[in-house]
Design a protein that fits this description.
The chain is mostly helical. It has 1 helix and no strands. Keywords: Membrane, Transmembrane, Transmembrane helix.
């Protein structure tokens, strides 16, 4: 006999909350990178020729 504990019940609300949290984080990271690339491009255009 094994002493396995039964799996916890699937909590869809918690799963959706975590999924939304990860999606928001990835959105902020991608937005930040786009913002950074934009300003690097502007700075290079304004730099010495």
């Amino acid at each position: 006999m094994t002493d396995e504990t039964p799996p916890e019940p699937f909590d869809e609300a918690e799963y959706r909350r975590r999924q939304r949290s990860r999606a928001n984080l990835m959105g902020w990271i991608l937005g930040g990178l786009a913002f950074l690339f934009f300003f690097i491009t502007i700075a290079r255009m304004m730099g010495p020729k």
